[in-house]
Amino acid sequence: MSGGTVLAAGCVLWRRDPEDGGLEICLVHRPRYDDWSFPKGKLKRGETAMEAALREVLEETGHHCVPGAALPTAFYMANGRPKEVSYWEAEAADGAFVPNHEVDRLAWLSPDTARARLSRPDDRIQLDAFLRSTSEA
Fold this sequence. Notes:
Layout: E1 6-16, E2 23-30, E3 35-37, E4 40-42, H1 49-61, E5 63-78, E6 81-95, E7 105-109, H2 111-117, H3 124-136
């Protein structure tokens, strides 16, 4: 797969604020890229996109999650190769964040603050799709 499309998967991880019940979106900070994004990562050999998304959420946030609807797939170039990232919405379950070499910070943010903090403007496509689905529920 040296020159092919890089396959990855992730989630728009969300929860209800324990204090006021408001919607909170989880973003992770990756020191290697100094960016804020949704938890995501490359598929391992033999792994489905959904399995990868759930594994990456757990590895990067310390939280288990309950996956929901599929969100738009992201397509972009990364390091000179095409990248395809499958996304799902996912509600956070039990767990706790522990900083590591891959993700040093995690933030639970209001949708508007998350939208402003996302490093890749195109990541707003997944956030907006998620917000549309929650407003219709």
